Amino acid sequence: MADFVSRISVVCFAASYGVALAFEVTRLWFRSGVRGATMVGFVTAGLLAQTLYLVWRAATVTALPLSSAFDWYLLAAWMLAAGSLWMTLANPRTPVGLFVLPVVLGLIGAAELSSREPFPQSPATQIWGIIHGSFNLAMSVAIVLGGLAGSMWLIQAGRLARKQAPLQGFRMPSLEKLSLWSSRMAIIAAWTGGSGFLSGMVLNAVNRQRGLLETVPWNDPVVLRMGMLVVWLIAAAIISRAVVRQASGRRITAVLSLISLCLLTASILWGVFGKTRHGMPPQSSSSRLVIPARRGDA
Amino acid sequence: MSLTFVGGSHRTVPIELRERLAFSADQAAEALARFRRQFPGSEAVLLSTCNRVELYAAAEQQQGPPPPDELALFLAECRGVDPTSAGQVLGGDQGPAAVKHLFCVAAGLDSMVLGEPQIVAQVKQAWQIAQQSGTTGPLTGELFQAALRAAKRVASETAVGRERLSIPSVAVADFASGVFERFDDKRVLLIGAGKMAAETLRYLRDAGARDVHVVNRTAGRAEQLAQRLGGTARPYKDLATELIAADLIVSTTGATEPVVTLEAFLAIEPQRQGRPLVVLDLAVPRDFDPRIGKQAGVWLYSVDDLGQACEANRQRRQREMPAALTIVDEETRRFMGDLHHRSTVPVIEQLRAGWNETGEAELDRLFRKLPDLDDAARDEIRRAFDRYAAKMLHPPMASLRSESHAGPPHGLLDALRRLFDLKE
After folding, report:
1. Which of A150, A217, B138, B181 could tie A182 with a disulfide, CB 3.0–4.6 Å?
2. Per CATH, which fold does B2-161+320-336 belong to?
3. Which of B141, B132, B254 is nearest to B193 (CA)?
């Protein structure tokens, strides 16, 4: 069993999601009784493979899901794939996969381009590291879901404004439901983004105070882009609340959610291709540093 | 063993004559009882709907059921219609063409509204009436079962009956449901008492709408309509208040000028506090100024808008026709193959009986020569004989089945009769 699990690679579940996406795309052209079941089967297989892969990494590489950029992206992709599966089962006539699976594949791609080295940790800062990573993960998932709901809202509103009947196989949820989703996600993203940024500051302060790990400077690109993103998310949430009683409020919320998704995408690309000291081991080695060791090295 | 049908539909028979040829359920039962007396040995099913009258007949005897012209005469006599005028418009067919026609009818491919689902229930009802009248048999039984199977396949494997075609159903399912997730917490306002109001409300009720308010210039009609539709009547002077409170409006007045102008709407719009509004303006001329539809949060649909969506749906259904006809062809071939194979059953039975008879005689002779055999040994030998007979019969039976797909296997049957000295 262990041998089988160790042979699962990123390509395995990325391919499963890719095939599921291809099946989902075909719903735009023709009807098929077995397509839905096949698509769900591939997403389930991908999700299972990804779960085993993450468990295997946690067990053998001492890389808990949030302990490296690679694992962080994979966990975000896993959460979205699980959400996509659940939403597809709950709304089989809605092409959920068409929207969510490209993001899942994008996150897996970002993971592949990111460092697999675990972030440096010490026992004193580990808990703050987990809190910081978890909040940022929740923020990203909320932004993605809100952005997708917003884009679906705009597509559905466009169809209704053009007075066209829904396309076969491309039936969107109602504006009411999508609007609720995007406004809720905007608030969740603002709260979790703010909390993630604050917990990152605490983590940095603890490191500086105790001299445990190298601190991240304020002008670090990651700190700057995350700070800007959080400011935007809070502003977007406030604007969404303010326009809720306006006739165009729902459209504004949808557009804001979509902008948040674009900013997150830009932020991820910046993180993948830009230079940063965030989450990096210190430049000068210190005897007090505690770099997680591979289990086999112990 | 053959099948025949005669009849006419909206395509071939003018409505005046169709009305005279139509059968109620009781009249259909009477006609079938008469058919049984007039054509003993034939099976029959009479399908009579608003758009068609068709009589399907079948017989296992060699002479077959009555020919189409005789059936047409029978239909005309049953309804007291001049046989000449009926004969001019009623048409018929036999064999595979008759089977294919019934399959198309059951699948809604020959209906006035392509793919309409009610026809399946009507075909089932026609079959039940014939069964109660004692005019069904194994042939019509299999034929109608196969027809329902074909209809089910067409419905599930194509989108021929999927798209909505009526304006109220499109208005609710394709547009109002695109805006609102649920209707049980929405306030519905009916303005006017036009003929489409009740039907639209029926779809809204199916979707969960409960809170219905009716406004009409004539208070009495509003009360009457509200009572009939299970809503609350409101005085016409409260129209502005109702517009503020409503989430969905169905307007069907006979007014010649817009009932709600842009200015009137803009005056009440701030009080709506940004709630989305769906307006189904089903009146001609329109009750709502079309510029209201340009306002944020307002989704206004006129009869023309909805009619265009219906037409697009109709075209989509039409595009599914080739796929549906392919299914009908497959099912027709399958049914005809099974039907032809049925004609081989007497020969196969004779063949099997002959082999069994010879086998039993040989076994008796063998057991008499070997009296010391115990029961277990006798059973084993008997089973070996049975297996041998089954294996020897398998090739001719497989050939018959295979030949049946192309048509009645008369040649093979004659050969078998001559080779094994079987009786006709």
Report:
1. A150
2. Beta Polymerase; domain 2 (3.30.460)
3. B254
